[in-house]
Amino acid sequence: MTVRPPAGATETSQGIDRSSPVPLYHQLEQLLRDDIAGGRYAVGSPLPSESAICERYGVSRSVVRQTLTNLAAVGLVRTERGRGSFVAEQKLQERFVQRAAGLFDDLHRMGYSIRTAVLAQERAELPLPVQDFLGEQQGLRIDRVRSVDGRVLAFIRSYLSAERFSGLLDEGLEDRSLYGLIEQRWSLRPTKGSRVVESVGAPEDIAPHLGVEVGEPLLFLRGTSRDQHARPLEWFEAWHRGDRTSFEIEILPSDGRPTSHVLVDHGSGAENQGEVGPSSAKQRTGPAAARPITAADPAEGLQGRIAATRVIAVLRAHRIEAPAELASVLVGHGFSLLAVAATGSQALETLAALATTEAVVGARGVRDAASVEAAIEAGARFLMAPMDARDEVLPAAGATPVMLAGLSPAEVSTAWLATRTPVEVFPFSMGGASYLRTLRDALPGVPVVPAGGVGEAEVPDLLAAGSLGVTIGSALCPPDALARGDLALVAERARSLRRTVDAAGHP
What we know:
Blueprint: E1 12-13, E2 16-17, H1 24-37, H2 50-57, H3 61-73, E3 77-80, E4 84-87, E5 92-96, H4 103-109, E6 114-125, H5 128-134, E7 138-148, E8 151-161, H6 162-165, H7 178-186, E9 190-201, H8 207-210, E10 217-227, E11 232-241, E12 245-249, H9 302-309, E13 311-315, H10 323-332, E14 337-341, H11 347-354, E15 360-364, H12 369-378, E16 382-386, H13 390-397, E17 402-406, H14 409-419, E18 423-425, H15 432-442, E19 448-450, H16 459-464, E20 470-472, H17 479-484, H18 487-504
Parallel strand pairs: 5-12, 13-14, 13-20, 14-15, 15-16, 16-17, 17-18, 18-19
Antiparallel strand pairs: 1-2, 3-4, 6-7, 7-8, 8-11, 9-10, 10-11
Helix pairs in contact: 1-3, 2-3, 10-18, 12-13
């Protein structure tokens, strides 16, 4: 079928180049972005109607709608039912770099006018997690509301040690940097910390200070900071207005240390690699101990392996006939990363059998310390877990890399910061390749691997959208074929998938 351009469209209409391999909706999106940035359409003003955009640029209505959807996803426009699309108020973008700095200092460096109102500055009973972090039952609580360029931005609650910083109760913190004061008076500065971002409803005691309704979605940031002596400095919680704030997370190398976990051999004679040292890695025996991944391996590390093969093959069946022969078929077609579903009744036996082959085998769906340790003992060299299991899985995993699964930008960024391994985007079918592009635009430094219903037909678009690789289950290895040992069917699908992956190329 031949698709003709709309009447009046030329080979190049109003900046649209029909001879270009760049999709029309991407070209139109860039043109509208330029118009907004250049002031053609002011904040709050309506964009032309869909029909007017179609006529001006010589494109179809479906192209216009895809473009407006993309612009809305990144916060450049907002769409009101029955009224059309409007240029959105631009959000203040905060950057999370692997450096410890306060919000006041970051915004001040960017040239913003900052006001800070102090609502509470007192001794208080600390919440239990804060007690664990600061090592005190009573501490200091400071509540502040921060405004930027006249707009209320965030409500910030800080907890600090009463023993170390009792003098803070006598200090005026209106329009001052807390970290700046601590460095000036106590010669302490934040040098290390952690940050967690999630979406929450506005609490009843916070909402009035931000000018929002109770339950309205907010961006919630929880963090801890340590000083140059590695002692706890601050625990803070900040509720940000989501309509005025976005978070950009920039990933930087950490002074020569690896920024992602690498596959680790747990045998007694192998060199331990990763973000934890040999002393903290649990020593284990089992099939994996015989096959270290050394520095000479050209695809060192889990991220490197995924980038090289582009596919993690999930083996999901209660019983797998001839696992060693199955691994030979998959590895022979270039699919060396195999993940055994931990829910299978013979998952541990299958892991042990696969661990003696040339495949790099992992366990998918581990949820607790017991299943993690059992999988590693059986030979798993990487793990895949849901986001809600991270608190149990990560401590038990030791130096074994863990891929967490998330869907929203907040979940994906949290998973990456917690593990420094590629993140599964699950289920990818919720947004498809279009959502993946939006996610990659929001988190350009985070390697993602879509999962959940991925078939061969979706692979080219997903790889083109910027995914490191894909997770494929029954589309490559049907459970019934695994149970009856139908290696011919698996080989046929593996050949076809290999051709598709190779045609898509590498980033």
